[in-house]
Amino acid sequence: MGFRHNNVLHNNHFRKDWQRRVKVWFDQPGSKKTRRNARQAKAAALGLRPTKALRPAVRCPTLKYNTKLREGRGFTLEELKAAGLRKKEARAIGVPVDHRRRNKSEESLKLNADRIKAYRERIIVLPRRNKKNKGQAPDLSNVSSTRDVAAAFPIPAGLVAEAPRAITAEEKEATAFRTLRTARAAHRNEGMRAARQKKKEEEAKDSKK
């Protein structure tokens, strides 16, 4: 066998019924058709409502991906307030709300508020109970047939690439290392400089008295 000393013997399981336990995906084409039929049935059951909810544009996490925008879970309360929409009213018209997310910049707040405003301009809310014209179907001749919200309100590009241009003489003479070190030193010594300036002003006031 080739085994020596007091070691554990190999216990290789070569007599298992492997064919019965193997997992294959031969039903993938059929599953694809099943999912497509389910989406079509769901869209038909929704009637005139959008097939997908409006989603906010959020930044991807980490330094590697934060230049890209993607769909988020829901809009913040600040974004709803900027768009003039209440929380319950937003959920009623298909605008999801995420109370945990926070806006950390004016750009994201304005971007998502504008998305809500554009969505409200295009959406048409039909009343559940029409008391005036009871029993009559509403006039839908002017209603847009667009139900794909993601296509109607796409997520914008997170970063617009700058066009190539020639390097200026000032940029050639500038030194990135020296600029960073100067800014770092100014930030570090800001407190001492402010204290020194304050002391000079107090001494000047005392000398005038």
Keyword list:
209 residues, mainly alpha, two-stranded antiparallel ribbon
Describe what this molecule looks like in 3D.
This protein has 209 residues and is mostly helical. Among the domains are: 48-128 and 147-158, no CATH class; 169-208. It has 10 helices and 2 strands. It has helices at residues 18-21, 28-46, 62-65, 77-82, 87-92, 106-122, 149-152, 169-173, 176-188, 190-208, and strands spanning 57-59, 69-71. It has a two-stranded antiparallel ribbon. The chain is flat and about 95 Å long. The mean pLDDT is 88.
Helix and strand topology:
Layout: H1 18-21, H2 28-46, E1 57-59, H3 62-65, E2 69-71, H4 77-82, H5 87-92, H6 106-122, H7 149-152, H8 169-173, H9 176-188, H10 190-208
Antiparallel strand pairs: 1-2
